[in-house]
Design goal:
The complex is a heterodimer.
Chain A (H helix, E strand, L loop, with lengths): L1 E5 L7 H9 L3 E5 L2 H5 L4 E3 L9 H5 L2 H10 L4 E4 L1 H4 L22 E2 L8 E6 L1 E2 L17 E6 L1 E2 L6 E7 L1 E9 L2 E4 L7 H20 L1
Parallel strand pairs in A: 1-2, 1-3, 3-4, 4-12
Antiparallel strand pairs in A: 5-9, 6-8, 7-10, 10-11, 11-12
Chain B lengths: L7 E9 L2 E6 L2 E7 L1 H10 L4 E6 L11 H8 L6 E4 L5 H9 L4 E4 L1 H5 L2 H10 L4 E9 L10 E5 L4 E6 H10 L4 E6 L11 H10 L4 E4 L5 H9 L4 E4 L1 H4 L5 H10 L9
Parallel strand pairs in B: 1-4, 1-12, 4-5, 5-6, 6-7, 7-10, 10-11, 11-12
Antiparallel strand pairs in B: 1-2, 2-3, 7-8, 8-9
Helix pairs in contact in B: 1-2, 8-10
Classes of the chains: A alpha/beta, B alpha/beta.
């Protein structure tokens, strides 16, 4: 199966591409809405500023992603890619997110250093107990975060972590998945989640 | 510290001409092995991040070795920082494309500070590490610590104050500071804790302490200060301290670390 990586010219896709290659999956990198519509598995990697997601709306990719989600295509957002699944972010108040989950992202309200950079343990929420993305990942596993904004703990949050305050680490609802951390940089735990995501997409394609 | 975050242990590979080397106070280099192999070993033994620095790229006035970066990155699934000889946004872009997650800039940032902002705007602040090589100077009139920034692997004095430069780097968009004490580097007598604290308390971005690691106790000391992460090279390369063993010591001392890893 080929994983479709959405390129919105907001930084570095090489690490995500490399992780899928390590897992034996092909990737295609695109910003063509038609290619996004035809995807079997969609990943929106994310680094950088929330405003860069504006490009997704103007290029027609946003509409294509919404169509793919409605058709049941597994969709994984990473970091800013996960934040985009919320209503928006105070980082770029004029840029609308997909509003797949309630609430908006805000900058950390903490005396601790921002960006939050480092390895934290993630804890499943009650509704995250059956998370497909986290299948085989032990509760309390360490993953790697680097971000200044965080998403609220709302319905659909499958795991949380804390940095001065508690925030969403993993979201999951049906075929929609998101991680605030970088699974491609989180050692074996992260690779396991990416493999789970591929398998979810492969099971669906095989049906 | 119980805010949920762990202190990071970073293994550094000083590379020249495609081989990992280790020097004492930036000179007298000896061979320590293959970068890709060592990076993988360090990650397996629990290093939270890997840094690869091409320590002669700037002094040789040549670009960093992209193929070494690509080869090292291909099997590495922890954060990977690359530095040495990055002079432009294009240089940085080529390294990201080869698999780097963060770029460390040193000389170029002093000569042309706007490069910090250029890379941060294109790749995000989290991808920009400003490396500062500092040597202690006479203490300031108010008793505060003074250190001068050096360039080109410690060969050129700049006249810049390390603390002031760290602040400026932050304001221009740096996501982290990698602070190397030239006085301590390679001595294995411990980090420069007062200098690390002076810089870490002056900025609101993570500061990585570097230079002088010799024993696990040195890491305890620098984390008891204000370091967010600590970096070492030779003590790991030659198997003196396994990272996992080091982390167990830190955990016993009450310092939160990623363990098991």
């Amino acid at each position: 199966m080929t994983v479709t990586l959405i390129d919105y010219r907001a930084g570095n896709l090489a690490s995500v591409r490399k992780a899928f290659a390590f897992l034996g999956r092909q990737t295609v990198t695109t910003e063509d809405p038609d290619q996004v519509r035809r995807a079997k598995a969609l990943v929106l990697p994310g680094v950088g500023h929330f405003s860069t997601t504006e490009r997704l709306a103007t290029s027609g990719v946003r509409a294509a992603v919404e169509e793919a989600i409605a058709n049941g295509v597994p969709f994984l957002g990473i970091c800013v890619g996960m934040q985009w699944q919320f209503g928006g972010s105070t980082e770029a108040p004029d840029t609308a997110g997909l509003a797949l989950f309630e609430g908006s992202c805000e900058r950390f309200q903490t005396d601790l250093k921002v960006p939050h950079v480092g390895w934290n343990r993630i804890t499943r929420t009650a509704e995250g107990a059956e998370s497909r993305l986290l299948r085989g990942v032990e509760d309390g596993s360490f993953v790697y975060f680097t971000h200044s904004y965080r998403a609220p703990v709302v319905k659909g949050v499958a795991a949380v972590t804390s940095y001065g305050e508690t925030f969403a680490a993993v979201v999951e609802r049906g075929n929609i998945f998101g991680t605030q951390f970088h699974p491609e940089k989180s050692g074996d735990n992260g690779l396991r989640m990416l493999r789970n995501f591929c398998e979810i997409a492969e099971e669906r394609s095989a049906r | 510290m119980s805010n949920g975050s762990t202190r990071r242990i970073i293994a550094c590979l000083d590379v020249t001409h495609g081989r990992v080397v280790k020097g004492v106070q930036f000179v007298d280099l000896i061979d320590a092995g293959d970068p890709a192999e060592l990076a993988r070993l360090h990650a397996e033994s629990g290093a939270d991040e890997i840094v690869l620095l091409d320590i002669t790229a700037t002094s040789d006035a040549r670009p960093i070795l992209i193929d070494v970066v690509r080869r090292t990155a291909s099997q590495l699934f922890v954060p990977f920082t690359v530095g040495g000889g990055v002079r432009s946004l294009d240089d940085a872009a080529a390294l990201f494309d080869a698999g780097a997650d963060k770029i460390s800039i040193n000389s170029a940032a002093i000569k042309n500070p706007s490069i910090i902002t250029d890379i941060a705007l294109r790749f995000g602040s989290q991808a920009v590490v400003v490396a500062i090589d500092a040597k202690r100077a006479a203490t300031n009139a108010d008793g505060s610590i003074a250190a001068e920034v050096y360039l080109a692997g410690g060969r050129i004095a700049t006249g810049h104050d390390a603390v002031a430069w760290a602040r400026e780097a932050e304001s221009r968009g740096a996501g982290e500071i990698l602070l190397t004490s030239m006085d301590c580097d390679g001595t294995r007598n411990g980090f420069d804790c007062p200098l690390t604290a002076a810089v870490a308390n002056a900025v609101n971005i993570p500061v990585i302490a570097s230079g002088g690691a010799g024993t696990p106790q040195h890491f305890v000391e620098v984390f008891d200060g204000a370091a967010d992460a600590a970096l070492a090279a030779s003590i790991f390369h030659f198997g003196i301290h396994d990272v996992r063993e080091l982390k167990a010591t830190l955990q016993r001392a009450g310092i939160p670390v990623r363990l098991p890893c």
